[in-house]
Amino acid sequence: MSDCISPSDAALARRLIELTQAGLPVVAEPWQWLAAELSLTEAETLALLTRLQQGGAIRRVAAVPNHYRLGYRYNGMTVWDVDDDQVDRLGALIGREPGVSHCYRRPRRLPVWHYNLFAMIHGRSQQELDQQRAHLRQLLGAARRSDDMLVSSRILKKTGVRLPETLARTLSGTPGEPSQHSARRSTGQSALQPNPNPDTGSDHHA
Hints:
By secondary structure, the protein is of the alpha+beta class. It contains 6 helices and 7 strands.
């Protein structure tokens, strides 16, 4: 990370993490707010964010809606057994569907668990959830060997990632410290998402 940002960026990057760990505020001009907090111009702030994104510290900036408040109270993790050689293509296909919020490739756990493609779907009713699952089955066609769906039974407390102070210093380039930053909030605010380095396959997000 020290190769991606200059020493003068390091302190600003640490401060940016502190300011955005809970998500950006819901204001008309969030970048102006962040710039004022950093004592930078808006252009300088966006340039810093661009450098961090290009360096791999930030994957993307996106809104994280609370789907429960939007009426989507039925959730199901669909799991699919598809050919390993086709899973990336099929994951990208499913991940583009509007009802899918997350789509992941995951390792099988044979002989108990033979599914290698996961897709989280949401609906306003169980019927809507079942319809979406049926639609995904049609999309996968003959590539689907088997599938199942794990349905949410209760809502647990959702809290965005909070990095401890030692990790908040990561963008200073201190050796041995992780180099990823995430700020997410489940209340509909904007979020800076990390650029993960998963050890198992690909992730496809809607």
